[in-house]
Design brief:
alpha+beta, Thrombin, subunit H, six-stranded antiparallel β-barrel, 23 strands, globular
């Protein structure tokens, strides 16, 4: 076995190199398309809408007790009880109108009972902060800039930098942009990287387990299956775009669970949708951008349930619990809030948890020309285990509902710093604006629309894969079947 699978086993230990090679291959492709014409609504846009309906609104967060704290720029002027009551009513109505009435109940101590926000003094309103973030987002680039954030937790614009966060580096830039330096928080931050690539075969397939993606002959990536979905009436699952052979391009890649020994029968699906990266618009010069690191694959076996694998504990266990062995997804949370406690399950570090530290941050991914817009980050709780590592890419991110075996889906993890102290994920709102509506839990099931017909290229690639699989199943040698498969793919049309 060692002789036959040597190249493949060796690649596991150098998966970071494999990702570097994939990045190089992408650089040789045609230029990224222009910015999408359809407007994408980010969480910052929703905060601005609240600010337009409640003048002076400066951001909000859940504190350590789960209480909602709301910044108001004019809080000092609310001297009478009636004025404070009117302001609280106005901002509560605005929050419910933009984020939904359920937002005010999700972290409340009494289940289903809306909590009144506590108004605290803010120095700036979100309209100002959003404008300043946009100014800095276009002006700041280079590998030393990790992220730019409208920081609703601290009523500031926060800029994460690698190395020296000294005042001198940014004071002149702030002045040239017309931004008060006091409105900025400059903090040293480790680089955020794509994570490279529970490990036994699981049928039906739940979210959180290991998957293997073919990227060439004897080449592959190990990642984590995010969650099962119904998309355009078809059964499939979501993982990271950077886990595929070429991110931002649908190549009909083969997915296997947990791995792909020859003639194992472990194939579970084919890549079907991986939206392209774009340039221009919100994407600064020299970068290519997306709003989520997500790709969709069609199942070639029966779809797994809307569930996430549950391990024996939340401090890094990889062993699936005997009962209950899953978290059942019962709802989606489109956008998370600072202070929320979130969980993730991944093939490398298992089940771990942390608290939302920032939302809608624009992240420059280390060692690439990629900027991911409006992402969220989760920080480790002091004294707990490593949150994430290579191979956890694609992990489902979720909150646990009052019924402990039930979950609300928040998004998909794609990376973090090397020390595993935090992770970054794409929120559900961004994933579904790029991939379209997804059914992720049973209560959602709408009558499915008719599936779109495959493109000529998609149909050709599927036929090539079917011929290869039939060749191997009939006892053909890899040295015969694989070259024929490659020639078949080369003859497929470009579109």
């Amino acid at each position: 076995m060692e002789g036959a699978m040597g190249p493949k086993l060796l690649l596991t230990s150098v998966v970071a190199i494999a990702l570097t090679l994939a990045t190089a291959a992408m650089a040789q492709q045609s230029q990224a398309p222009a910015a999408p014409s359809a407007a994408v609504t980010t969480f910052d846009d929703k905060l601005v809408k609240i600010g337009e309906q409640a003048p002076g609104f400066g951001g909000m967060y859940f504190d350590e007790k789960g209480a909602l704290q709301v910044y108001m720029k004019n809080a000092a002027e609310l001297r009478s009880a009636d004025a404070m009551k009117a302001a609280r009513s106005q901002v509560t109505s605005a929050i419910a109108g933009v984020l939904g009435a359920e937002f005010l109940t999700q972290n409340a101590a009494a289940k289903g009972r809306a909590q009144e926000p506590n108004i605290i003094k803010g120095d700036y309103d979100v309209l100002e902060l959003a404008k300043w973030k946009k100014s800095f987002g276009a002006a700041l680039d280079g590998q030393e800039i990790v992220f730019v954030d409208l920081d609703e937790r601290r009523n500031r614009v926060t800029i994460g930098v690698v190395g020296d966060p000294s005042r001198q580096r940014f004071e002149a830039l702030a002045k040239s942009l017309g931004v008060p330096f006091e409105a900025l928080i400059i903090e040293e931050t480790p680089p955020i990287r794509f994570h490279a690539s529970l490990r036994d075969k699981s049928r039906p397939v739940p979210g959180g387990v290991q998957i293997e993606i073919d990227t060439g002959v004897f080449a592959y990536k190990l990642c984590t299956l995010g969650f099962n979905v119904v998309r355009n009436g078809r059964d499939g699952f979501i993982t990271n775009s950077h886990c595929t052979k070429n991110r931002g391009v649908s190549n009909d890649d083969d997915f296997h669970q947990p791995n792909d020994p020859l003639l194992s029968g472990n194939k579970i699906g084919d890549e079907d949708a991986d939206p392209p990266y774009f340039t221009g618009g919100q994407c600064p010069s020299g970068r290519k951008c997306r709003f989520s690191d997500s790709a969709y694959a069609d199942y070639r076996i029966d779809r797994g349930r809307f569930e996430i694998a549950r391990t024996t504990n939340n401090v890094g266990s990889l062993t699936i619990n005997s009962f209950p062995g899953v978290f059942r997804i019962m709802s989606e949370t489109p956008d998370s809030m600072v202070g929320m406690r979130l969980n993730k399950v991944g093939r490398t570090t298992g089940w771990a948890f942390g608290d939302v530290r920032a939302t809608c941050i624009d992240v420059n991914v280390a060692d690439t020309d990629v900027r991911l817009l409006c992402q969220s980050s989760v920080a480790r709780v002091s004294g707990t285990n490593k949150l994430t590592d290579n191979g956890d890419s694609g992990s489902p991110v979720f909150s646990i509902l009052p019924t402990a075996s039930q979950a609300s889906l928040h998004g998909i993890l794609w990376g973090g710093p090397d020390d595993g102290s935090s992770f970054v994920f794409s929120p559900m709102s961004m994933i579904e604006q790029e991939l379209g509506p997804l059914t992720t839990f049973t209560a959602q099931q709408p009558p499915p629309p008719p599936p779109p017909p495959p493109t000529p290229r998609e149909q050709c690639l599927r036929e090539c894969n079917a011929e290869r699989d039939a060749c191997l199943a009939d006892g053909g040698l890899g040295s015969q079947c694989i070259p024929a498969w490659r020639r078949c793919r080369e003859q497929c049309p470009a579109q």
